[in-house]
Design brief:
Helix content is 26%, strand content 24%. It has three domains: 56 residues, Alpha-Beta Plaits (2-Layer Sandwich); 184 residues, 3-Layer(aba) Sandwich (Rossmann fold); 122 residues, TPP-binding domain (Rossmann fold). Helix 5 crosses helix 6 and helix 7 packs parallel to helix 11. Helix 10 links the parallel strand 20 and strand 21. The strands form six sheets. The chain has a seven-stranded parallel β-sheet, sandwiched between helices. A five-stranded parallel β-sheet has the order 18-17-19-20-21. A three-stranded antiparallel β-sheet has the order 12-13-14. The chain is of the alpha/beta class. The site of flavin-adenine dinucleotide has 28 residues, from helix 8, helix 9, strand 20 and helix 11.
Length: 401
Amino acid sequence: MADSITIFLDKCTGCTLCVKACPFGAIHMANKKAVIDMAACTLCGACVETCKFRAIELKKDTGGKKDLSKYKDVWVFCEQKKGVIQSISFELLGEGRKLADKLGVKLCAVILGSGIESKIDELAERGADKIYISDHPALEFYQDDPYTEVFVRLVQEYAPEVILCGATTIGRSLISRVAVKVNAGLTADCTGLDIDKKERILLQTRPAFGGNIMATIVTPNHRPQMATVRHKVMKEAAIDKSHKAEVIRKSYPEEALKSRTRLIDIVAEIEENVNLAEADIIVSGGRGLGGPEHFAIIRELAKALNAAVGASRAAVDSDWIPYSHQVGQTGKTVCPKLYIACGISGQIQHLIGMQSSKVIVAINKDPDAPIFKVATYGIVGDIFDIVPALTKEFQRVLNKV
Ligand SMILES: Cc1cc2nc3c(=O)[nH]c(=O)nc-3n(C[C@H](O)[C@H](O)[C@H](O)COP(=O)(O)OP(=O)(O)OC[C@H]3O[C@@H](n4cnc5c(N)ncnc54)[C@H](O)[C@@H]3O)c2cc1C
């Protein structure tokens, strides 16, 4: 049964309450009766609750009596680049272990690539009880089509209860495709996970409405329960050299490994300092810098602190610094121990990408800049005075001169 919404015209009094209640502007009046524009309606149900006359009925496909008992185990997609397992995978294995223990199931690692047999021990030592591995030259580099197809086939064959994936560029691209193909929901960018033991449900917590509230999302009627998790939020699984895993090697026919896109080249980015997503400290510059040449003061401070350099979109859009440094809604989500925002106003789209940083220091000459609302420490003043002074002091304290 598909989801549906119906207006009972005999009950509709034309009161227009539902028109006002609809957050998507999907209801209008015609001949004093409510009419729903199905292209705009998201079936959120806001109108149903408002209608005093019970003239609107929403039927949701709850999955009926779908048998969920065949789904078991917690899976972690272990991202590798050039054969190096990315640290987010170890974070997910650490968190996955807790979830698997609460559910009383196995923790499984899924790794795709070429020449990756040697990675098995590494994943076992990080706590994986079972490792699904598909090793083929077509899987050497991440590509949407073959990775999705192989992952979907694994899910269909082994039916995991929970799938965790890093909220990385690759993770986001892959797992959304997998979710659609296996008809499951997906909660993106989680910062907290837990299990409701009684219902065997994954509690997926993530910031919502620009970080103003934390929403906990559940998927009671569908399996697998799928979530992407932000980098650096969870603790890495400890290494236990004695831990062994069962290994399931899977190979697939050529048709499953086909790609509609062709990888021509991978251009390594020249990172002068530290990788943004991995960094414990980030110094970011915004439009307040006034020009590309002034990023020099940001780089100097970053160098003194062994930090990565970030930027606001305004700085990136002005071509002062490459896009790979952009922090925010359409850039990277970061969660360092220390984030220093220099000449950044703190618009919501920037905050979304950095507000879960442990300590935020904001330097801005405008005392009313919104960045100060999220800052742990605020310095009201000119970045051209303050940033070089901080650099000098850090260099002195950290014995770098
Ligand atoms: C769909 C969408 C997605 C977006 N995604 C992102 C994103 O991913 N990341 C992002 O950052 N933005 C994003 N934006 C843009 C965002 O709305 C802001 O425009 C942007 O963050 C502003 O950058 P800024 O703070 O550097 O510039 P401004 O808002 O212009 O702020 C500059 C600040 O510098 C201060 N300043 C100026 N001179 C000095 C000085 N000498 N000393 C101290 N302070 C000084 C000013 O007081 C001001 O507060 C997005 C917008 C949209 C619509």
